[in-house]
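Deliverable D4.2, example record:
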Amino acid sequence: MAKSIKVLGTGCTNCKTTSALIHEVVNEFKIDASIAKIEDIVEIMEYDILATPAIVIDEVVAFYGRIPSKSEVIELLT
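Output generated by the structure prediction step:
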């Protein structure tokens, strides 16, 4: 079953970097996943996070507040 991955962020450099990193890991490890970039602040607030960028996997907030390292993303997704 495909993972549902959402990158929450308003479009800042950190959010774009996080989104690119997610795409890189998904492609590198051939992970079956759909990736969405959520930039709407109202929708982001529904996840009750204090800082972006944030990563939501299958509707569970998995990471937020800074750009994750590649190894952290690999650990989250594999």
